[in-house]
Amino acid sequence: MKTSVRKLAAAVGASVALIAAGHAGAEIRIGIAGPMTGPVAQYGDMQFSGARMAIERINAAGGVMGEQLVGVEVDDVCDPKQAVTVANRLVNQGVQYVVGHLCSSSTQPASDIYEDEGILMITPASTSPQITQRGYELLFRTIGLDSMQGPVAGNFIVNQSPNRVAVIHDKQQYGEGIATAVRDTLRGAGVEVAMFEGITAGDKDFSSLVTKIKQANVDFVYYGGYHPELGLILRQARQADVSSRFMGPEGVGNKDINTIAGEAAEGLLVTLPPSFDEKEENQDLVAAFAAKGEDTSGPFVLTSYAAVQLIADGIEQAGSKDPFEVAKALRAGTFETPIGNVQFDQAGDMESFEFVVYEWHSDGSKTPVN
Amino acid sequence: MQDLLYFSQQLINGLTIGSTYALIAIGYTMVYGIIGMINFAHGEIYMIGAYTALIAITGLATLGIAWLPLVLIVALICAMIVSSSMGWAVERVAYRPVRGRHRLIPLISAIGMSIFLQNYVHLAQGSRNVGFPALIDGSFRFGSSEGFQLSLSYMQITIFITTLVCMTALSLFISRSRIGRACRAVSQDLGMANLLGIDTNRIISATFVIGAALAAVAGLLLGMYYGSVDPLFGFIAGLKAFTAAVLGGIGSIPGAMLGGLILGVAESMTSGYLSGEYKDVVAFGLLILILLFKPTGLLGKPEVEKI
User: Fold this and answer.
1) Chain A contacts of B277, Cβ < 8 Å?
2) What number is the average pLDDT over the span A288-317?
3) By CB atoms within 10 Å of each CB, which of A14, A107, A366, B280 scores lowest?
4) Burial, A268: exposed, middle or buried (Cβ in 10 Å; 0-12, 13-18, 19+)?
5) Cis amide leading into A101 (omega within 30)
6) Is A39 within 8 Å of B267 when comparing Cβ atoms?
7) Any chain A CB within 8 A of the CB of B119?
8) CA-CA distance, A328 to A318, in Å (whole number)?
């Protein structure tokens, strides 16, 4: 009995010492916020794996200003309420930099907290234009905007010269934002938008919608939203013999759409960031991911990697760990990252970001469409 | 001609979804009819039924068994057994200990159970959508006008027929069998039934088991119809089925069927003729209207004050 008490005391003492060392020692904590659970958790996986790899490699190369990076991972379930909760948790833990969040509707409320608390945030995935339109000083992103992606999709559809197009969205910030951008591009080019309609995210039954699409006799359907709903729409549309071509943003472009839609996913068009993992200069990095058994083909893996790297480079460049100084340094410089040379504008968006149209196949692969 | 076809197609869509609402609504209405509580965990029982069916189908596929009737029957039986035991266990664990207390206590216990089951499946099965194989594929096509063709899929027919069979069987069971008669007696007066020698605990358990078995049938059917399941699968369906039960008159079995069908058709007509965005507005607006003019629901009997 006595020995076990003594052991316990020793263990407690040791862990206190460890915690103390953790605080006193040199480390830079980076919050990584995204969905680990919930319907879009697979995008979170991309984000986490990219960020972890960046932290690992930067640490292996000696860290930032001699200090090691430590990732603090939190799960926001892609739910705005949960995003606020985890943002507050990161604040309490004294985190000064955040990579995240993923969903625009989570990023927006969380960014209010980070800005107030002087935390620098880089979202590797949120594409809603509104996020960076509020004049925030500490907010950046390493992904393009819906207002860039929408016109790419819209112009692509215009070039297919369809007669009538239906534009559907999930009424969420991301989906509706991008669908609106597509609709405006189409209208601007004189293409008839026969339907512009919202569905409820989480719904399963789209038979009425599919019937409506069929009756409207459209040859092209654009969907703004995520894959769980589009997967079901595709499947139900195929069962009802709808022959229209479907297209969606990067939110639908992942392999889970194949498990839901099956054969019906064949021929789906998706706008995605270019495959950074196919670039020559990234092959080392891709091999490092492959060595860990991780896939780099997801759209947010390397954008997250770049986000962590930018924080590190920003700190080095500013010569200070103060987030405001780092933000200034990020706005001033040009940084070489796996997603190309990054240069930020005043709002915190990248000066240029390219989107490419891919054709999706029923085995989960994709080929670029010219 | 096209308008008529379009209308019929939306009607078919609505009746299909409505009949599955009805299947789930039975669980709510029977439990309410007998012990006067709302079993919020019922939607989760339905979701678990869908998952069990999927696991059974996948299991059979790995064994190389692909004969459709066998696969369906095995999946159905597995789903019904697992869901029914869940229904039974939920009642035993979460409701029986608090039965007879203030009305709010079982209600909160039910909400807790629902959250527990949802998160349990989250942990056990992962949060991703899982694809459900389309076992019954293909459809009948009728009339064609300006490129629009009415289609009635085999799956929809299966849903109609199964619902019809289940409902008829249930009605016969309630009106003819011994347990059914005991159910009716318990629902009229629990205390008196107890005095007359009916094992009311057993009857209440039976109610949960029957409701859960029907939910499992709905789980298998809807899983196949939609093509994917996720742990939140039961939540919206449960909410809609509960609405259907209230609409038709909670506590009344024919009411649940009627309520389900009306709700399904109202939803599909709204998204067909107005916009999908107004689907839920109309569905719940309808509920409020009916409750305003007929507080007991369409077929509900006014509660007689027992003295």
Assistant:
1) 171, 197-199
2) 91
3) A14
4) buried
5) yes
6) no
7) no
8) 8
> CB–CB of A235/A210 below 8 Å?
no
Q: Which of A235, A192, A197, A189 is nearest to A213 (CA)?
A: A197
Measured between CB atoms, does A235 come within 8 Å of chain B? yes
**At which residue do the structure tokens 């459209």 appear?**
A218
Pairing of strands A139-141, A97-100: unpaired
CA distance B304 to B296: 12
Which residue among B148, B232, B276 places its CB closest to the CB of A199? Answer: B276
d(CA A76, CA A85): 8
User: Strands A120-123 and A97-100, how do they pair?
Assistant: parallel
The gap from C-alpha B206 to its chain's centroid, in whole angstroms, comes to 16
**Residue B230 to residue B22: CA distance in whole angstroms:** 21
Q: B63 exposed, middle or buried (CB, 10 Å; 0-12, 13-18, 19+)?
A: exposed
Please, is B196 exposed, middle or buried when counting C-beta atoms within 10 Å of its C-beta (0-12, 13-18, 19+)? exposed
> Are the beta carbons of B17 and A217 separated by less than 8 Å?
no
Nearest CA in chain A to B235: A202
Out of A208, A241, A262, closest to residue B131 by CB:
A262
- Integer Cα distance of A185 and A183 in angstroms: 5
Tell me if B13 and A231 make a contact (CB, 8 A cut-off): no
In this complex, is the C-beta atom of A202 within 8 Å of any C-beta atom belonging to chain B? yes
Q: CA of B150: which chain A residue's CA is closest? A: A240
Contacts of A129 (CB under 8 A, 6+ apart): A145, A146, A147, A177
Verify whether the Cβ–Cβ distance A204 to B233 is below 8 Å. yes
- ipTM score: 0.83
CA distance linking residue B167 with residue B254, whole number of Å = 9
Residues in chain B within 8 Å Cβ distance of A240: 139, 151, 153
Task: In whole angstroms, give the CA distance from residue B223 to residue A155.
Answer: 37
Q: Classify the C-alpha dihedral B72-B73-B77-B80 as positive or negative.
A: positive
Place of tokens 């079901």: A232
| CB-based contact B34:B107 (threshold 8 Å) | no
Cα gap A312→A68, rounded to integer Å: 10
What pLDDT digit, counting tens, does each position of B76-121 carry? 999 999 999 999 999 999 999 988 888 889 889 999 999 999 889 9
B296 touches chain A (CB under 8 A): no
Rounded Cα distance between B137 and A114, Å, is 51
- Report the gap between the CA of B139 and the closest CA in chain A (Å): 8
- Model pTM score: 0.79
Q: Give the model confidence (pLDDT) of B284-298 as tens digits.
A: 898 889 889 888 888
Burial track B45-60 (b if 16+ CB lie within 10 A, e otherwise): bbbbbbbbbbbbbeeb
Q: Which residues neighbour A282 within 8 Å (Cβ) at sequence distance 6 or greater? A: A276, A302, A338
